């Protein structure tokens, strides 16, 4: 198959390589490492007289949670132009500026061109070029040696999300440690998991239903940057007259399109939500019928023991992990009978409020206990804590409770990245539960966008499985703990730069990485962690492959098969072939698909019969179509069932009272300051500024850093309010030093009136090589509080929970 996509009569890839090699001197370190400049890749294609031109439909990056189909003009086996796909229905037809400028990215100077071996110190970034054979053997030898000396659990293999979206075989084949709990994007979900079920942060209804809502609250979510393509649904809602409220310390793009912007103080959203709950209870705006029918708030609780009156004796552990049989059925106070009855008994009329003595023990309903808990939280306190006025909180509560269906669309960035995010998620769950804004059109909560929820009809694809004995293991210590807790890891292999993207407090992380016996990375670009690797392997981009086809994906309402690939640039290889080369060192490559074509054919085999949504989608028909077919029923009219009758908790009800957190006193979401980012923190004397990070439309995390157009205008810079800038004599374009006790970095500064005084903002992240010194991850917070280990998803990395100082460099 290889080569059939590039039958050129003109200049071949090989001759380009030779031609561009002449300019190798321009790159300094990179040239010493055997790299050539990529300048030559752009102009000759345009100038070529007999250019061979064709169109290919390729799949774009996934980690902005879309994965667009892209129409690419390929000239002389090089991507020359990228446009929105014409194979996609009008409503899903999209492209963003990252897609449209891919040409600048694919052929960027940061591409890793050949396998490299480190020759300097770790972190120095000095390499020599080596052969694939030698590189693969060096990695395999290091892994085998560690396995022999220290056991299988000494080897760590982890893929960055973008690098692992299509498959992740090799780590499982060698039973490596995968880094345990993710520690990302599960902060609020830690609070909603027990209430509505583990994966309730993925909405059970569709984003296209935004138009059915009366109100949408964007809670620390900035879809106009973090979900550009999905934000179409928000704009549809705006056009339909839906009232949109954005809660964000910054005046974001999303705030600018909203009816209201609430500039909350960083890390205090739980106080805002608790203020709303307080108003709703005081005013009697709750939905009593919904509460009685669908929530745990009518359960009886033994006041002294803090334990729900159930048919089982033991305290209920995390309800997300147990069944009704294990914990016993809850009782309510039956008003008809005047005695406790099983909630599940027919004809029971549960009391909402009250306290009764049963067998000498005092019992109250959860609702009564909730009111007692809330007694500590006045509206005045809420307003003072979160920085939003009492009047505004009360008006929002009114709108949310009394004005028709409402949606809370929370971000997994922003407020999720503080140590108190579970308190926010739990509070939001209670707000939703008492108002009944769930399980009906135009109502719900969660992280809308990204097909994580029920945005488009489900599409069934077969999963390529390895024999059962081949599976990742975990040493019991998650990656975020590895720099701090004793662990068996000696050797690491990452696909993508997981170490500097996914871990905070980079000085700690990288000190740990330096202490390892061996570290290898497979990446497309010279990302930040590359400098620390012993061996670097060049992966090819999403636009390149040894064969004609590559990724098969179900995304954004369509099934797409990337086809018409460009040959891998330089000496890069596809991830599949890299995994196969590694697997071959263990004689296990036969367990992997030989080609992307084999994988895609397998994934599609028989799905037409299995799933009515997949009707008409076969490998052949996909190729005939150009590479993209709609899943049946996709489009803005799609409405999933998404009801309230199947809450996957032991009781089948929305659980508001978290018995399992009694040891921490968190049965209800007791308000808690963030770890570092709070007003009364004495540390503010030294480091007075909140340092928030977030997504930018110009990058997916660090990816696209290498795009020259973006680099020229949107390199690493810190945003600061005019007030804070003036106090420090800073103007836009100045160089600054940002620092705290964990570390520092130097880069440019932008004075930006969209920020409130006291708050800095920076887009995460950019490769270290573009900073003047260090990078933002040097200052971010890696604290893991004790309670977090009891939560469903474990501790969350609190990047935003960070205080810093800034000065002119
Ligand atoms: N372009 C682009 N899109 C992406 C990604 C990307 O890298 N680039 N990454 C994807 C991923 S992995 C994720 S998790 C999602 C995340 O999607 P979002 O959650 O929308 O992402 P963020 O920009 O991190 O955070 C959202 C907002 O939270 C605000 N914020 C910070 N602290 C607080 C706070 O205490 N309270 C409130 N209310 N707001 C606060 C920030 O100012 C920011 O505007 O985006 C996805 N989409
Ligand atoms: N300070 C701070 N840090 C943060 C955040 C924050 O808000 N603040 N947000 C966090 C969030 S929400 C998340 S989800 C994580 C994301 O962290 P990751 O999951 O690690 O990020 P990705 O962007 O998915 O992965 C990008 C890496 O994979 C490489 N790559 C891309 N495509 C491929 C491929 O096809 N093959 C191979 N081999 N490599 C590839 C890229 O070059 C890059 O090194 O970052 C977190 N980091
Ligand atoms: Mo994320």
UniProtKB/TrEMBL annotation:
GO terms for molecular function: iron-sulfur cluster binding; metal ion binding; molybdopterin cofactor binding; oxidoreductase activity. It holds the Pfam family Molybdopterin. Gene3D superfamilies: 2.40.40.20, 3.40.50.740, ADC-like domains (2.20.25.90), Dimethylsulfoxide Reductase, domain 2 (3.40.228.10). Residues 111-583 form the Molybdopterin oxidoreductase domain. The keyword Iron-sulfur applies. Keywords: Iron, Iron-sulfur, Metal-binding, Oxidoreductase, Signal. PROSITE patterns: TAT. Residues 689-768 form the Molybdopterin dinucleotide-binding domain. SUPFAM superfamilies: ADC-like, Formate dehydrogenase/DMSO reductase, domains 1-3. It comes from the Bacteria. InterPro entries: Asp_de-COase-like_dom_sf, MoPterin_dinucl-bd_dom, Mopterin_OxRdtase, Prok_Mopterin_Oxidored, TAT_signal, TAT_signal_bac_arc. Belongs to the prokaryotic molybdopterin-containing oxidoreductase family. This is Molybdopterin oxidoreductase. The lineage of its organism: Bacteria, Bacillati, Actinomycetota, Coriobacteriia, Eggerthellales.
């Amino acid at each position: 198959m290889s080569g059939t996509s590039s039958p050129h009569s003109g200049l071949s890839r090989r001759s380009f390589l030779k031609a561009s090699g002449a300019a190798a001197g321009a790159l300094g370190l990179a040239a010493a490492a055997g790299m050539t400049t990529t300048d030559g890749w752009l102009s000759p294609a345009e100038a070529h007289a007999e250019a061979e031109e064709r169109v290919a439909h390729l799949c774009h990056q996934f980690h902005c949670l879309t994965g667009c189909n892209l129409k690419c003009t390929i000239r002389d086996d090089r991507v020359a132009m990228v446009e929105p796909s014409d194979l996609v229905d009008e409503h899903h037809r999209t492209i963003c500026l990252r897609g449209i400028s891919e040409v600048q990215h694919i052929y960027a100077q940061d591409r890793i061109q050949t396998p490299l071996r480190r020759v300097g110190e770790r972190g120095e970034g000095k390499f020599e070029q080596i052969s694939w054979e030698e590189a693969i053997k060096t990695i395999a030898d290091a892994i085998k040696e560690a396995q022999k000396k220290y056991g299988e659990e000494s080897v760590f293999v982890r893929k960055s999300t973008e690098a692992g979206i299509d498959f992740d075989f090799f780590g499982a084949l060698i039973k490596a440690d995968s880094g345990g709990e993710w520690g990302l994007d599960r902060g609020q979900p830690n609070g909603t998991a027990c209430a509505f079920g583990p994966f309730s942060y993925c909405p059970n209804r569709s984003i296209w239903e935004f138009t059915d809502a009366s109100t949408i609250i964007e809670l620390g979510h900035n879809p106009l940057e973090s979900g550009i393509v999905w934000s179409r649904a928000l704009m549809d809602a705006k056009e339909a007259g839906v009232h949109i409220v954005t809660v964000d310390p910054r005046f974001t793009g999303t705030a600018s399109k909203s009816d209201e912007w609430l500039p909350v103080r960083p890390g205090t959203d739980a106080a805002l939500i608790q203020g709303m709950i307080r108003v709703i209870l005081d005013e009697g705006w709750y939905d009593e019928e919904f509460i009685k029918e669908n929530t745990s708030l009518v359960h009886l609780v033994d006041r002294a023991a803090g334990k729900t009156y159930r048919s089982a004796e033991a305290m209920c552990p995390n309800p997300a992990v147990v069944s009704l049989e294990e914990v016993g059925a809850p009782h309510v106070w039956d008003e008809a009978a005047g005695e406790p009855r099983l909630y599940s008994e027919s004809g029971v009329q549960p009391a909402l409020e009250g306290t009764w003595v049963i067998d000498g023990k005092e019992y109250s309903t959860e609702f009564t206990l909730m009111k007692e808990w809330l007694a500590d939280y006045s509206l005045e306190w809420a307003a003072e804590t979160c920085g939003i006025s009492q009047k505004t909180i009360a008006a929002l509560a009114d709108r949310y409770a009394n004005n028709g269906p409402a949606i809370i669309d929370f971000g997994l960035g922003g407020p999720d990245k503080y140590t108190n995010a579970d308190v926010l998620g739990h509070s939001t769950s209670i707000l939703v539960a008492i108002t009944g804004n769930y399980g009906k059109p135009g109502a719900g909560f969660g992280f809308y966008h990204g097909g994580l929820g029920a945005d488009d009809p489900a599409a069934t694809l077969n999963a390529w499985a390895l024999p059962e004995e081949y599976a990742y293991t975990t040493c019991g210590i998650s990656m975020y703990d590895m720099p701090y807790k004793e662990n068996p890891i000696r050797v690491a292999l990452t696909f993508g730069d997981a170490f500097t993207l996914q871990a905070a407090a980079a000085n700690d992380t990288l000190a740990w990485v330096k202490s390892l016996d061996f570290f290898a990375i497979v990446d497309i670009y010279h990302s930040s962690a590359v400098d620390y690797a012993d061996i670097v392997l060049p992966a090819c981009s999403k636009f390149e492959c040894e064969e004609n086809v590559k990724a098969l994906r179900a995304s954004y309402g369509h099934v797409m098969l990337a086809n018409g690939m460009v040959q891998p640039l330089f000496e890069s290889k596809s991830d599949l072939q890299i995994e196969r080369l590694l697997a071959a060192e263990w004689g296990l490559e036969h367990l992997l698909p030989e080609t992307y074509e084999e994988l895609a054919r397998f994934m599609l085999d028989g799905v037409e019969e299995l799933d009515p949504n997949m009707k008409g989608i076969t490998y052949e028909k996909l190729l005939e179509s150009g590479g993209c077919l709609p899943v049946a029923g996709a489009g803005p009219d799609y409405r999933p069932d998404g009801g309230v009758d199947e809450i996957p908790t032991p009781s089948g009800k929305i659980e508001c009272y978290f018995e399992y957190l009694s040891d921490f006193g968190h049965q209800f979401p007791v308000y808690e300051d963030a770890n570092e980012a709070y007003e009364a923190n004495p540390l503010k004397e030294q480091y007075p500024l909140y340092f928030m990070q977030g997504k930018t439309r110009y990058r997916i995390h660090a990816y696209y850093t290498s795009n020259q157009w973006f680099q020229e205008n949107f390199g690493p810079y810190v945003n600061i309010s005019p007030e804070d800038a003036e106090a420090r004599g800073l103007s836009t374009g100045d160089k600054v030093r940002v620092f705290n006790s964990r570390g520092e970095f130097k880069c440019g500064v932008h004075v930006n009136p969209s920020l409130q005084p006291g708050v800095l903002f920076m887009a995460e992240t950019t490769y270290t090589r573009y900073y003047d010194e260090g990078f933002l991850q040097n200052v971010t917070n890696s604290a893991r509080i004790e309670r977090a280990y009891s939560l469903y998803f474990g501790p969350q990395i609190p990047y935003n929970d960070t205080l810093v100082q800034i000065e002119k460099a």
